[in-house]
């Protein structure tokens, strides 16, 4: 392999690494939904993330959710909010989620829907 090709490949690799480390940083402080491998689905304000570890503040666990407006995925929840039949926990001040799969920005309507949902209580 020639030197120029190797340098080009290394630069491309470094660009990918730098992009993955900064991707989504513009969402810091925004209300988001985080889907985790083992911890379920959470909604809160994005404080930080590094690799797959996400830190949320004022976070609620979406223990059981049904997207509003007949949408059917977490993307629908992030856009439309949740139905009243959803089961949401009380907010915790801070939570560290070590195995996040995705971070989705929420619309103001979705944030209001989730934040306004009554805490689910077992009878």
What does this structure look like?
- With 123 residues, the protein is an alpha+beta fold.
- The protein has 3 helices and 6 strands; from the N terminus they run αβββαβββα.
- β2 and β3 (53-64) form a beta hairpin.
- It is elongated and about 70 Å long.
- The relative contact order is 0.20.
- Mean pLDDT is 87; it is low at 16-20.
Put the structure in a nutshell.
By secondary structure, this protein is of the alpha+beta class.
The coarse silhouette is: elongated
- Domain module tally: 1
- Percent range of helical residues: 25-40%
The CATH architecture assignment turns out to be Roll
CATH class: Mainly Beta
Number of discrete helical segments:
3
Number of strands: 6
Mean pLDDT metric: 87
Task: List unreliable stretches of 5+ residues.
Answer: 16-20
CATH topology: SH3 type barrels
Protein structure class: alpha+beta
Determine the oligomeric state from the structure: single chain
Largest sheet: 6 strands, antiparallel
Tell me the radius of gyration. 18 Å
Element order, helices and strands? Answer: HEEEHEEEH
> β content, as a range?
25-35%
C-alpha termini separation: 69 Å
């Amino acid at each position: 392999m020639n030197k120029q090709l190797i340098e080009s490949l290394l630069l491309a690799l470094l660009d990918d690494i730098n992009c993955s480390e900064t991707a989504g940083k513009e969402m810091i402080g925004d209300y988001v939904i985080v889907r985790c491998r083992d911890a379920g689905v959470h909604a809160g304000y994005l404080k930080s993330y590094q690799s797959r570890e996400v830190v949320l503040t004022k976070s609620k666990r979406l223990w059981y959710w049904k997207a509003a407006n007949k949408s059917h995925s977490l993307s629908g929840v992030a856009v439309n909010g949740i139905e009243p039949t959803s089961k949401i926990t009380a907010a915790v001040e801070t939570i560290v989620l070590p195995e996040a799969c995705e971070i989705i920005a929420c619309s103001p309507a979705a944030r209001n829907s989730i934040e306004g949902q009554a805490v689910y209580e077992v009878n």
